[in-house]
Every structure is written in structure tokens, then in C-alpha cells.
């Protein structure tokens, strides 16, 4: 996430044409918008890394990043369903947009989060999985 954000910020137009997700199907590139989203990805990447070290107290941060990823995925799904993106985007968008939204959304479910935190605590105490 951080690496993608840095690429978006530093080479917005190059990113648009070279990331393997058929960005031209979305319309013309907007360097300013690409850089804005790139900064968001950098922040979200650091936020997720920060959450790893104290899961029990960083749930709000995790929820905000997860919310973005879930609505981002839902936006892509909606655009495919209503025809703004070609159907090929089901496969193109799945690995980098939909899958992360599904995983982070699932981890945000309270029961799943509680299990994750308790496992994380056990690993910290014993030093093993």
C-alpha cells in the first residue's frame, strides 16, 4: 500500500498508464487526483503498520482504514455493475481492490477482531504462534 502510494505521488501519470489494472478504462488521467489518493494510500499503509504493534488499542484506526478499503471495493463493484467499467474489471480489480476490502472488512467484524487481538496477545506473551 505504501509503495503504491509513493508511486502514485511521485509519478502520477506514469502510474496511471503502467499499473496493470487498465486505468484508461476509467477515463483520462488526473494527476492531482492520483496524487491525492496516493497520499491517502501512504497514510493508510503506515496506519495499518502502526496498528499491528498494539491491536487492542488501535481498533478505531483500523476501522477507518478498513472502511475506506470496503467502500473503495464497493465503488468498483458498482461501476462494473452499472457499466461504467468493463466486465473484465471483475478479474482486474479483484486482487488489489476487492480482495483487500473483503479481508479488512472481515477482520473488522467484532468477533473476528477479538480473536485476532487475543491471538496477538498470546504470541506477544509466549513469543510463538
State the main characteristics.
129 residues, mainly alpha, globular
Can you tell me about this structure?
The protein is mostly helical. The chain has one domain. Helix content is 75%, strand content 0%. The chain is built from six helices and no strands. It has helices at residues 2-10, 12-18, 31-52, 59-81, 89-107, 110-126. Helix 1 (2-10) crosses helix 2 (12-18), helix 1 (2-10) packs antiparallel against helix 3 (31-52) and helix 3 crosses helix 4 (59-81). The longest helix has 23 residues, at 59-81. It is globular, with a radius of gyration of 17 Å. The protein starts with a helix and ends with a helix. The model has no long low-confidence stretch (mean pLDDT 91).
